[in-house]
From TrEMBL:
Belongs to the insect beta-1,3-glucan binding protein family. The lineage of its organism: Eukaryota, Metazoa, Ecdysozoa, Arthropoda, Hexapoda. Residues 26-124 form the CBM39 domain. Keywords: Immunity, Innate immunity, Signal. Coiled coil: none annotated. Residues 1-25 form the signal peptide. It comes from Bactrocera dorsalis. This is Gram-negative bacteria-binding protein 1. Residues 150-487 form the GH16 domain.
């Protein structure tokens, strides 16, 4: 019986990958690719019996299944003996392209994964583009409105994921941002314009509207107050954000500040954006391709934050998830010799504000190079049992739920939720850069110019800028894309 089942499985796999129709085996040929102007073309040769062809394409992320790609296009007419889809997206030399192909051949459907293609190795002139006649142009696909995969013979599998106002299928791409165009897409993202609340971990920043979108990238670059010109002094002046302020809890603190004595204006101007008004979800897989900031006392904000704060607003009562986090210092150690700088990547949950508890629900991995040296793909999978973390497709840790039963679980309201409480509600996406603060840099860090409990913490940070500002050679957070999948 086992042998018979084994032979049946082999036959089934063969039929799916190649297919047999009337004694003839069809195998999808390798996909060919050509760079073309502001985009690129993918194609396969025509063969009698092909009725339509679809391509699904990802940049810098392998497919884990036959799922919708970053770019998707189906064509029902061959052109000059080839099935061609043109994609309007400029590629970089360091991009790697992953493709899977769907072909309807003699009424049957076949799928095949292609080998990864390095853009730097793509030859020119693979396809005779100039020979394409004008009345039979290739299908042109953009990243803004990619067509859905042909649903024929596909089954929508149930998903654990819950999305605001609609249902999803397992493996479905439920959110995607590629930062095309010349400005932030206001239907998806909103700026936070505020100063952090003066609580146990407030950052030393003013969040404003100084993000940039260019060349398919989000760029958030922190700047020193007044660009540190001789007349700039955070110990003088008045700051009032007025109607632009997006205060969360206390407008007196978040929107207005008068500098006097130990109270100073925010030393750093930066940006923080979120999808709170447009997109939130419960359980899923989040992927962010990003280049993290480099510079002392900076840190990136790649976060999931609670939509409704069901367990309370203050002291992380409703939790925060960090898709990826580093202390961006080029060199940072504790007095005990523990490495804490930008070569150490963290992912996890923040459930208390104190710096001494910040790593309780974090996992980490260390590399030889600073994580701000190049782009990496950071991934968080969040389900009803645990959080799991990957970088560039390699898992480096997971955190089981049961936070209410943990000794650090200080909020009794969590016992009213499920195993993942307080991480059992809808969360939205936040991106940004911050600096300093009372919670993310332990007082045990060597050369740290402020103490977390000091009322002069921000002022002492500012006074030390002669030491740290020279390290801000690449302080920007660069984000290539953000994607969320149903699980």
């Amino acid at each position: 019986m086992k042998m018979r089942l084994w032979l049946w499985c082999i036959s089934f796999v063969f039929l799916c990958c190649c297919g047999i129709q009337n004694g003839f085996a069809y195998k999808i040929p390798p996909v060919e690719m050509e760079l073309k102007g502001e985009g690129f073309i993918v194609s396969i040769p025509h063969e009698a019996g092909i009725e339509n062809v679809a391509f699904n394409v990802n940049r810098n992320r392998p497919f884990k299944a036959f799922e919708q790609g970053e770019f998707s296009g189906r064509v029902s007419t061959e052109t000059n003996n080839r099935w061609i889809v043109e994609i309007k997206r400029r590629l970089r030399e360091d991009d790697t392209i992953y493709i899977w192909t769907d072909v309807q051949f003699n009424k049957n459907r076949f799928r095949s994964m292609s080998s990864p293609i390095m853009v730097s190795e793509v030859p020119s002139g693979v396809i005779a583009i100039n020979e394409i006649v004008h009345d039979k142009k290739p299908v042109v696909i953009t990243t803004e409105t990619p067509p859905a995969i042909d649903p024929r013979n596909d089954i929508c599998e149930p998903t654990l994921t819950i999305i605001r106002n609609r249902n999803a299928c397992r493996g479905e791409l439920i959110f995607e941002e590629n930062f095309n165009g010349n400005e932030l897409n206001a239907t998806r993202w909103r700026y936070e314009v505020r100063m952090p609340l003066d609580i146990a971990d407030a950052e030393f920043v003013l969040y404003d509207t100084n993000a940039e979108v260019t060349n398919g990238m989000l760029k958030i670059e922190p700047r020193i107050w007044g660009n540190d010109n001789p007349d700039a002094d955070i110990r003088r002046g008045n700051l009032n954000l007025g109607v632009r302020c997006t205060a969360y809890q206390n407008s007196d603190i978040e929107c207005r500040r008068q500098a006097f004595g130990r109270v100073v204006l925010p030393p750093i101007l930066t940006a923080r954006i979120n999808t709170k008004h447009a997109f939130s979800f419960k359980y899923g897989r989040v992927e962010v391709r990003a280049k993290l900031p480099q510079g002392d006392w900076l840190f990136p904000l790649l976060l999931l934050e609670p939509l409704a704060n069901l367990y309370g607003q203050q002291a992380y009562a409703s939790g925060q998830m960090r898709i990826a986090f580093i202390r961006s210092n080029l060199n940072l150690q504790t007095s005990g010799g523990i490495e804490m700088g930008g070569r150490v990547l963290y992912g996890g949950a923040v459930l208390r504000p104190e710096a001494s508890y910040r790593n309780t629900f974090m996992v980490n991995t260390t590399r030889d190079a600073h994580f701000g040296e190049t782009f990496h793909i950071y991934s968080l999978t969040w389900d009803d049992q645990r959080l799991s973390f990957e970088v560039d497709g390699q898992k480096y840790g997971s955190i089981d739920g049961g936070f209410a039963q943990h000794e650090m679980g200080h909020n009794y309201a969590w016992t009213n939720g499920n195993h993942m409480a307080p991480l059992d509600q809808e969360f939205f996406i936040t991106l940004g850069v911050a600096a300093g603060g009372h919670g993310d840099f332990s007082d045990d860090c060597l050369s740290k110019p402020w103490a977390n409990t000091s009322p002069k913490a921000a002022l002492n940070f500012w006074r030390d800028r002669g030491n740290w500002k020279s390290t801000w050679t690449n302080p920007s957070l660069m984000v290539d894309y953000v994607r969320v999948y149903a699980i």
